[in-house]
Amino acid sequence: MRFDDIKESSLMAIDTLRANKLRSSLTILGVSVGVITIIFMVSIIQGLNKAFADQVESLGSNTIFVSKFDPGFGRPPGPSEIHRKDLTMEDAEALREGPSIAGVSPIHRLIAVTTRYQNKQTDTPILLGVTPYYEFVHSQFVARGRFIKDLDMDNRENVCIVGVDVVRALFPYEDPIGKEVRIDGTPYFVIGVMEPLGNFFGQSRDNSIFVPMTTFDKYYADRPFPGVVFFIIVRPQSRAYVKSAIDEITDILRRRRRVPINEKNNFGISSQDSLLDIYNQLTGATALVLTAISFVALMIGGIGVMNIMLVSVTERTKEIGVRKAVGATRFNILSQFLIEAVVLTGIGGLTGLVVGEVLAFLINKFSPLPAYVPLWAIGVGIGVSAAVGIVFGLWPAWKAARLDPIEALRWE
To answer: Which residues contact 331 (CB under 8 A, 6 or more apart)?
Structure first.
């Protein structure tokens, strides 16, 4: 088909649309609603995926988490996991033997400890018992003061490093370093303030207090604190060593915990990639349902296009007969009506894209839901709208092309 034929058919299609403004506008609206639905759904799905990936990335791209519980989101540990043997400091030391492992940071965690300074109190901080390796393994460092040293560990010193949320709660107008705070009634001297760490799934990582692990054990190891959790963070030599480091961790812990060959691990290992895999498994079905709903809306718009095009063919039967009488081929007629359908859906698609982008921006700005429209979604929106025009315009165009010119000229 020559370019001049395409140009002529396109101009004729646009003239027809101008002549039937209301009908064309309603058809465009139907397609626009379908494209808006697609862009809206994609923006929400992609926004959630991007937000989750950013949250996981904030933990460190090379970070590997090891605990006695299997990895999962929003899933409480099962009875078998709860009764598993706890990981130990000896396990953490053994992991340092792995050739792919650059650093190991065992951590004790206790949620919601009461912390006081003079007449100010906060009951929400998370208490973390850590070792001097914490900074290197997590790539998280003190902003002021210093971190825990080996001497603090050896002497079980009552010293702590506080997060910026704790500083805001207890020291709004003074420097916390060198001050004495009481954690669950026990005095500690503040020796440092951590750099801001941000949030992880709505939970502030800055609302934390770090103490030497030996000091943590001194006050909490022999007391019934069900909220105490022990886990190990491992840093591989580089991103390329994550898989081999996981294999080494698995091998070492299975041997230390005497797990039979035919039984699964009685501990959990997760990395950034595995966390993303679990998330995608949990949200994949939801994303599929939302995408199906979007395409149903677009299909309804396509049916509207087919209906309008069939009406248009009926109304212009005599015009088709005249064109055939003066030499127009079936292909000329077919292309004219097909281009008209594509123009209709193309305009609807572009309108839907603009409105969808605006909606995504407003949602991202004024609601807690993240919304993100990737470049490929714009291409998909344009491509799908054009495809709808071709698919749903093909039958009316073919019907017009097959009209007998003599019968068409007799049509009233």
So the answer is: 1, 401
**Average pLDDT of the residues in 76-91:** 84
Alpha carbon separation from 51 to 199, 236, 263 (Å, rounded): 11, 25, 36
As to burial, measured by CB atoms within 10 angstroms (0-12 exposed, 13-18 middle, 19+ buried), residue 406 is exposed
Q: Is the pLDDT of residue 199 over 80?
A: no
Instruction: Answer whether residue 159 shows pLDDT above 60.
Output: yes
Q: Is residue 225 within 8 Å of 232, Cβ to Cβ?
A: no
**Would you state the structure tokens that stand for residue 289, as one six-digit string?**
């349902």
- CA nearest to 210, candidates 118, 96, 120, 132: 132
Per this entry, what is the length of the chain? 412
Secondary structure (H, E, C), 310-350: HHHHHHCHHHHHHHHHCCCCHHHHHHHHHHHHHHHHHHHHH
In 3D space, the residue among 207, 232, 226, 190 whose CA is nearest the CA of residue 127 turns out to be 207
**Whole-prediction pTM:** 0.62
Pairing outcome for strands 186-194 and 159-162? parallel
Dihedral pair phi/psi, residue 80, rounded to 5°:
-65, -35
Contact 46, 373 (CB under 8 A): yes
Beta bridge partners of 142: 194
CA distance 222 to 98: 31
Alpha-carbon distance 210 to 159, whole Å?
A: 8
Sign of CA dihedral 206, 211, 217, 220: negative
Give 280-307 pLDDT, tens digit per residue: 666 667 777 777 777 777 777 777 777 7
Vertex 187: Cα angle to 124 and 175 (nearest 5)? 75
Q: Please compute the mean of the pLDDT values over residues 372-400 and round it to a whole number.
A: 76
Residues 131/153, Cβ–Cβ less than 8 Å: yes
The distance from CA 407 to its chain's CA centroid, rounded to whole angstroms, is: 59
pLDDT by residue (tens digit) across 316-326?
677 777 777 77
